Amino acid sequence: MPVLRVLSTVAKQALQAPVCGYQPLAVTARCISFSPRQVPPGSDASFHSVSFSETDHPKVLITGGLGQLGVGLAKLLRKRFGKNNVILSDIRKPSSHVFHSGPFIYSDILDYKNLREIVVNNRITWLVHYSALLSAVGEANVSLARAVNITGLHNILDIAAEHGLRLFVPSTIGAFGPTSPRNPTPDLCVQRPRTIYGVSKVHAELMGEYYHQRYGLDFRCLRYPGIISADSQPGGGTTDYAVQIFHDAVKSGKFECNLRQDTRLPMMYIDDCLRATIEVMEAPAEALTMRTYNINAMSFTPEELAQEIQKQLPDLQVTYEVDVMRQGIADSWPMNFDDTNARHDWGWKHDYDLPELVQTMLNFIGSESQIAQAT
Ligand SMILES: NC(=O)c1ccc[n+]([C@@H]2O[C@H](COP(=O)([O-])OP(=O)(O)OC[C@H]3O[C@@H](n4cnc5c(N)ncnc54)[C@H](O)[C@@H]3O)[C@@H](O)[C@H]2O)c1
Ligand SMILES: C[C@@H](O)[C@H](N)C(=O)O
C-alpha cells in the first residue's frame, strides 16, 4: 500500500478509536494536543512554565459547584480574591440568588473540550473539582458514578496538567474500608473501600499523586469527614442524617434516623471544611510533606448528636429505621480520623466541636424558620 494511504488509514482509525477519553470528539482534540501522555520522560518541568504566579490573585473554577459545598466555597473565595475571579460551574440550573452573586457557567466535566475552553478563555489558575456522585447515590447508579467520578477526574487531571493549574480534589472518609484501622484511621494504611464512591476516591488520590510526581502537577487533596451545613442540602451520602436531623428537629420535633444509634463517624461543620480547603490551597508547597491529608473535627453517633440537640430542644423524638445499604457503608468507614499530619504540616485546626456545631445549626435553621413563618 502506498505510504500516504497507509498513513491516512492509520489516522482515520486513530480518530475513530475511543482510546483515551469518554467522548470521541473530545478524544480527537485531546490526543493531538499537549497531553501528559505525550510528554517524554525528563521533560516534566515544562508543566510549571505557565503555572500560577503567587503575586497574582488566582482565577478559580469550581466544578460541581451547586452541591452542598460549592456555593459556600465560592462565597469565601470571592471575598478573598474578588467576585469575578471565582467561577462556579455545574450541569444544573442555578437559583436566581446564586446566578446573581457572581460568575456561573455550564460545565459538564465529561466534556473535555468544553472544560478546556472554559480554562483557556477565563485564564483559570486554580481548579477546585467538586463534581461527584456521593456514596449512597453512587451505589444506586454505579455506571454514572464511574463515569463522573473516574472518567470525569481523568479530564480534570489532564486539563490541570496541560495548563499548569493548582488542582484541589476532595477525598473522603469513604476512601477507607472494613480492613482499614477504624479508630483512629491514619493517613497511610490499607484502603480497600467497598463502594464505587470510595474506589473512585482512592483512584483520585493515587492518580493525583502520580501526576504530581510524574508531571509536576500541583495536586492537593483533603479527605473530608461528613460535612454538616445549614443553608445547603447534602447530595445523597451516608452522613446526610446529621444534616436532616436539625431541619426535622426544628420543623416537627421528630426525626427518623436511617443509621443505627451507635454508628460513630467523623464529622465537620462546613465553615471548618471550607477554611481547610482554602488553607491547604494557599499552603507553601514546601510545607506539604504529602499531597493527600485526613482532616478532622469531631466524631459522634446519632444518639450523641440527638442528646446534644435535646439540650436545646428537649421534646425532640428520635426513632431508628435502619437503611441496610447506608448502614453497611457506615460500618465500613472510619470511626475517628487521625489528622496529625495536617495539623503538623500546614497548621490545620478545627473551630467547631459538637456543642458549637449544634448551637450554630439550631441558630441558623431556627432563624430561617422564624423568617419563613413571618412571611
Ligand atoms: N458533603 C460531604 O459530606 C463530603 C464529604 C467528603 C467529601 N466530599 C466531596 O466534596 C465534593 C463536593 O461535595 P458535595 O457535598 O458538594 O456534593 P454534591 O453531591 O452536593 O454536589 C455534587 C455536584 O456535582 C454535580 N455534577 C454531577 N455530575 C456532573 C457532571 N457530569 N459535570 C459537572 N458537575 C456534575 C452535581 O450536579 C452536583 O451539583 C465531592 O467531590 C464529594 O465527594 C463531600
Ligand atoms: C462522607 C462523604 O463522603 C459523604 N457525605 C457521603 O456520605 O457520601
The largest β sheet comes out as: 8 strands, parallel
C-alpha-based Rg, rounded: 22 Å
Beta-strand content bin: 5-15%
CATH topology description of the domain at 24-228 and 267-298 and 334-352: Rossmann fold
Give an overview of the whole structure.
The chain has 375 residues and is of the alpha/beta class. It has a domain at 24-228 and 267-298 and 334-352: Rossmann fold (3-Layer(aba) Sandwich), CATH 3.40.50.720. It has 14 helices and 13 strands. It has helices at residues 3-16, 24-31, 70-81, 96-100, 112-121, 135-140, 142-162, 196-215, 241-251, 270-282, 302-310, 324-331, 340-346, 354-374, and strands spanning 60-63, 86-90, 104-106, 126-129, 166-168, 171-172, 218-224, 226-228, 254-257, 265-269, 292-294, 298-300, 317-320. The strands form three sheets. Strands 1, 2, 3, 4, 5, 6, 7 and 11 form an eight-stranded parallel beta sheet that branches. Helix 4 (96-100) links the parallel strand 2 and strand 3. Residues 134-135, 172-174, 197, 226, 237-239 line the site of threonine (THR). Pathway: Amino-acid degradation; L-threonine degradation via oxydo-reductase pathway; glycine from L-threonine: step 1/2. It is an enzyme of class 1 (oxidoreductase). Residues 60-295 form the NAD-dependent epimerase/dehydratase domain.
